[in-house]
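Example 3.2
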Amino acid sequence: MTSGTTRTHLVWDWNGTLLDDTHAVIQATNAAFAEIELAPITLEQYREMYTIPIPRFYERFLGRLPTEAEWERMDGIFHRYYAEQRAACGLTAGAEELLHEWQRAGRSQSLLSMYGHEQLVPVVRGYGIEPRFVRVEGRTGPSGGSKALHMERHFEALAGVDGIVPENAVVIGDALDDAVAAAHVGARAVLYTGGSHSRSSLEGAGVPVVDSLAEAVALAETFAA
């Protein structure tokens, strides 16, 4: 890899980006839907309708926001089913090599996920890629919300580690919320079509949209040139 005039830091998303788990997410979503007698949805429907915060996503099918009790029940069922299905998921094609090459080139990268932190860290460790990152961070607090404030705290922590700043960072994720979180801190974003959103949905974010992680990394390199 060629080096640019600035040292680009990558912030990777986990679910639907580095981890190829979209089908597990669909199965867990349908289990949650069944709890309140909603019909199952397809991958295509999920990608067209997915939004943050998650209760708003459920509202698109239910016709109203779920009650607090419904949301808590559905969220619990989703996470239980997802944990069962996740074990069979692998890393996205090429992800391991891309992480290794970026690190070998002397560049930094971190992982920020809305998957719960206590669950995330051992999972990432289990795939053997934890040493590729200067920081691995999952969600703390309630599930279902935006990544923006988590991204803000992520960079505050990174500044104390390596002096990394958002202006020299590229967020790589699969959701519109990744672009929102990047903009919130002044970082760039590249969105990947293999996860939670359709290409047409992602293109509404006004940032580059790619069909592979290799394309995302190649674009990140050009930002620093």
